Amino acid sequence: MKPRHFILGALLAALLQSAALGKIIYDRATLLATGQEVVLETGFVDPRDLFRGHYTSLDFPISRLDPKEFSLPDYIAYDDDLYLVLDTGSGPFATIKSISKTYPAAPQGPVLKARAKSEYAKGGRVRSRFRMAFPFDRYFAPKMRAQELEKLKKDRKLGVILALDGKGNGAIKGISIEGRKIYEEPLF
User: Fold this and answer.
1) Does this model's pTM top 0.85?
2) For a surface tag, which of 1, 40, 141, 163 has the fewest beta carbons within 10 Å of its beta carbon?
């Protein structure tokens, strides 16, 4: 291979990788700037990991449901995508109105995408809790900030402010305590 072709190939690869990274950053910044804000109640657990550093695991009460209290689809397999229609008018934190396996045609509120972490079959053995996970289950923070959040959880209502797009995707936009925003994620 000629050196000239090698250099052109390397430049093209670098350009494509830069463009892909730029698109990811642009999409996240756009979601944070224009997404619909929703606040979910959370608790924090401050694990420490040698390779990941300090982060705070987010513990969302809405990720654990009693199947007897909700109308769930007839069958949900482990790792199925679920779409939660949220009620934002019932208090400081959003609650679940309905759950479906497909994006609702005319949702009556913001929609949040989740992933099933347990199975459910209507008429089958019903567990006491049905579990779901969200793509934003960790909040990375510097050591001191992560430890501050861990201390705050003991006596206050903590919330995670999300920005949701029109497809159910969400990103962490900020953190609130007792309804007051204490942190806002920078766009860049």
Assistant:
1) no
2) 1
User: Strand, helix or coil at 125?
Assistant: coil
DSSP structure class, residue 67 = G
Please indicate, yes or no, if residue 134 is contained in any of the structural domains. yes
In a domain, 1, yes or no: no
- The answer to whether 158 and 58 are in contact (CB under 8 A) is no
The number of distinct structural domains making up the chain is 1
- Residue 36 and residue 110: Cα distance in Å, rounded? 8
Cβ atoms within 10 Å of 139's Cβ, excluding its own = 19
Closest-CA residue to 168 (of 97, 107, 92, 118) = 107
Which residue, chain included where needed, has tokens 């698109």? 23
Whether 14 is in a domain gets the answer no
Task: Summarize the chain as % helix, strand, coil (round to 5).
Answer: 25, 40, 35
Print the domain residue range for 141.
35-184
pLDDT tens by residue, 117-146: 988 888 777 667 889 999 887 776 666 766
What pLDDT is stored for residue 147 in this prediction?
67
Average pLDDT, the chain: 85
Q: What are phi and psi of 15, to 5 degrees?
A: -65, -45
Q: Is residue 118 part of a domain?
A: yes
